[in-house]
Structure formats: structure tokens, C-alpha cells
Amino acid sequence: MGNALMVQYAVLGSGSSGNSYLFTDGTVSILIDQGYSVVELTRRLSQFSVPLSTVQAVFLTHLHPDHARGVGVLSRRLPIPVYAHDRMVAEQPLLIEKLGIPEGKLQTVCTSELVEVGSFSLFCFETSHDSGGSVGWYITHQDTHYMVLTDTGITSEQQMMLAGDADILFLEANYDEQMLRSGPYPAMLKRRISGNHGHLSNDQALQFLCESGFKGEHVYFIHLSECNNDPVILEKVVQSMTDLPFTVCRKNQWYGPKNEVHL
Ligand SMILES: [Zn+2]
Ligand SMILES: [Zn+2]
Fold it and tell me: Which residues, 6 or more positions from 182, have their beta carbon under 8 angstroms from its beta carbon?
């Protein structure tokens, strides 16, 4: 950990087995999504020397289990709020109830509404996914902007503008189009994944990256499908398209600044 004014961020995990992104200033930590048990989350945080007790808020992108599974138990353990888009709560009341977030801890926000937690300010933007009220999050700390864009079938003008201003971008690259086409999934599921409310392909992610004019410090490619993507293929495609520093986040690994890879 650097000094308290520095922000450390980490991909605690990304993919179907669990998603969570950490931002911490050394005193206050926030999470985007929480797809882990408290034990597993604590273990992953400890890889970055971040105590669980510093976590002061969780922000949800959507309610699929790999993103939201652990948020209820965490919010019962710690005295912290859980932020969700108001449409997420309105459209999926049963799923929200099932999470078991204690009364008063669920905070709803609308698109672009600013939330401040410690030295961080955040707002959400809409994504296009088969989970009502799905969003991505834009996190600002001092002059640095972080953008988490995952689980979206298509991208928007607004997302493109935000990415153009971001310093660190976490961008979904879920599947390789050829691998999905020839892979083992049933046709209906293939259509779901590649549809407008599914996931971004490697090509879509790269097109988005180039069109956005992103000129920040680093891109983390996240949420790779285990079955329909290959990190090596993605790395080659990215290298052929851009000189930007990037990391392809593999399953069951976690990544911090300096691109340390932890097995
Ligand atoms: Zn999802
Ligand atoms: Zn997902």
C-alpha cells in the first residue's frame, strides 16, 4: 500500500465465478459488485493488504449472481450501504429481497446521480443487459477517473464519451465471435450472449476502445468467458490494434496496479 492519499485499485476477480473491483485510499475502500463469500472476499482483499473493515460501500452493476451473490451477507456483516439503480430495485423486487440487505442499507440512485464516499465520488451510467436497471460505474478520485463497463450487449454514445475521459478503464471482452459460433453452447444461449442485451465480444470491446479515443494509463479487459474466449487470442488482437498498456484479466486471478499477477 502506498501513502494514504494514493488510490489503490484492484480487480479482485472477474468472470462467471465472481466479480468485484476494489478502490481504496488506504482508509476508505469501496467495491463495485461483490460476487464472493465474506471469507473469499477477505482473502482476496488481504492480497492487497486491505482489511475488510475499511470497506464502506458496495455499488452494484446488476443482479446476476456472479456480481451480486455476496452483497447481502457483506451488508449484514458490516454497517455499510449498498447502492443500486432505482430501476434495478423497481423491476426486480424479488431478487433484491432475496439478497437480504438489511433495511435502510439499500440506497437507490438514478443515472448520473453523484454519490460521495470518503474521497471518492461515483455515478452510474446505463448498460444494455438482460437484468433490469443494469449500469456501469464511473469513479473519480481527485483528478483520476476510473470506469467499470461490463455486462453490456452494446455500447452507447454516453459510454464512449466517458471512456474518452477515463484514466483507467475496466472493459468487458466476453467472447471471441468465432469461438462462440463454433462452441458448445445451445443456439438460444449463443443468441443471448451475442445479442443487444448480452455481452461485448472482443471485437466490440476493441472497436469501442478505439472509437472512444481513450488515452488513459491502462485498460483491464474483464469478464472473459471461460468457454467462449481465450486470453491469448485477445492479447494478440489487442496488441495488433493499439499501443495502450493493457491487462487481460484471467479467471480466478487478481490484478492490482503494477500488473502484478497473483495465482
Ligand atoms: Zn450479467
Ligand atoms: Zn456477469
Answer: none
Q: CA 25, CA 7: separation in Å to the nearest integer?
A: 5
Distance 61 CA to ligand 1 centre (A): 9
- Asked if the structure places residue 98 within a domain, the reply is yes
**Does some domain include residue 30?**
yes
- For residues 136-147, average pLDDT: 96
Percent of the residues in the chain that have a pLDDT greater than 90, as a whole number: 89
Establish if 49 belongs to a structural domain.
yes
Taking each helix axis as running N to C, give the angle between helix 202-212 and helix 231-241, from 0 to 180 degrees, rounded to the nearest 10. Answer: 30
Residues around ligand 2, an ion, CB closer than 5 A: 66, 151
- How many whole angstroms from 27 Cα to the centroid of ligand 1? 30
Is 3 part of a structural domain of the chain?
no
- Binning pLDDT at 50, 70 and 90, where does residue 258 land? low
Give the count of domains, the chain. 1
Ion ligand 1 nearby residues (CB, 5 A):
64, 151
Distance 14 CA to ligand 2 centre (A): 8
Residue 181 domain boundaries: 8-251
| 195 — pLDDT class (breaks 50, 70, 90) | very high
